[in-house]
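Researcher: Before we compare anything, I want clean individual predictions. No alignment, no superposition, just each chain on its own. First chain goes here; please echo the sequence and then give the structure tokens.
Model: Echoing the first chain and its structure:
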Amino acid sequence: MKKLLLVLVVAMLVFGISACKGSDSPKAVLNDFLGLFDGFLTNMDKADNADKVVAAIDTFSVAMQAIAPRMKALEEKYPALKAGMKGGAMPEEFKEFEQKFKDMTPRMMGLFGKMMQYANDPKVQAAQKKFQEAMQAFDK
């Protein structure tokens, strides 16, 4: 079972990294980011044990670090984008993504609930540190 999980994690990492190497056009970057986050939410929704939670977090963290420079450049060019992603009102150039982002917002609550469910597991704690580092790379 652990070998299967390892194979799945490696496959998701390869997919995540390759997905984040797309075009640098603003819409492509935002589409890649939303796809990455949607995949993370889906993986966390399906996670029913600590190992699957760790796999989902690790996959997301690696891919997030890969896409962070592209997102940072996008936010510098469109400062209203960061506020829109937090407030749910996208700038006019990105209105086509607004509904997708709004649809993911309620799922984020489940994400944190799942992390809390397995928060005492040392493997999950280590993965959460990687998650925090990945999110900090996004803000740098």
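Researcher: Okay. Second chain, same rules.
Model: Second chain and its structure:
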Amino acid sequence: MTEVSHEDTNDMVVWSPVGEGPWPVVFAIPGSVGDAERDLTVLASELAAEGLLVIGTDVRTSPPAYTELDVECGYRYARQIAADYGGDVTLPVTMLGFSFGAFPATVYGLNGSQYGPEGIFTDCFSGVPRPDIVVTVAGCHLDALDQTNIYFNNTETAVVLVSGAKDTVCPATLHTPPMQTLLEERGFDVTAVEIPGADHGGLVFHDQQSWDELPTDDPGGQATVEAIVEAVNAAR
């Protein structure tokens, strides 16, 4: 794990596989506390063990303009530095959002006209292609559905919605179906993965109450890892 940052980003961290690569790149966004290391270290380390280079960013979760800066500038910078750590952006690039992070993953990851190479967002770096895959984990999708000005148009991006059957924070039955329906109506290829027995924190190897890290063989977390790896392999 390596800490990185740029004057135009928030604090960022890289979890690297063993070896030289090349590795597919995963850009990861944490939950509502906004701390990538806190939320994603175990998940990212397990993904790195599977041969994925994970670059996470801290985010300010309010006001929305700060979230936009932290996520989009972090994503652009992640693509810029990926090769320094063995990553290869010509392989499938994934934008991963956990809990609160599912909102910016979908809003920025799927909006090519706003944030792509020809997009109108010019606050940092140059516009870059949208990810090949957007994965949301324990997504609280109703926040995104309430934003009537969102324009999901990058339909080349595959979407995977990972949820836990026992999630009481963002219940799958409440949040996943309307997002899946909206995206499919707009032409996206969407896969919904519901993990039996997993609650909100368990999907990222955390005890929901204490937020202590769970063992790396925890079935809920490992099922999340498997879903992400399968999505990347399917996009190769």
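Researcher: What stands out in the second chain?
Model: The beta strands are 2-4, 12-15, 25-29, 53-57, 93-98, 133-137, 158-164, 190-195. Additionally, The chain has a mean pLDDT of 95.
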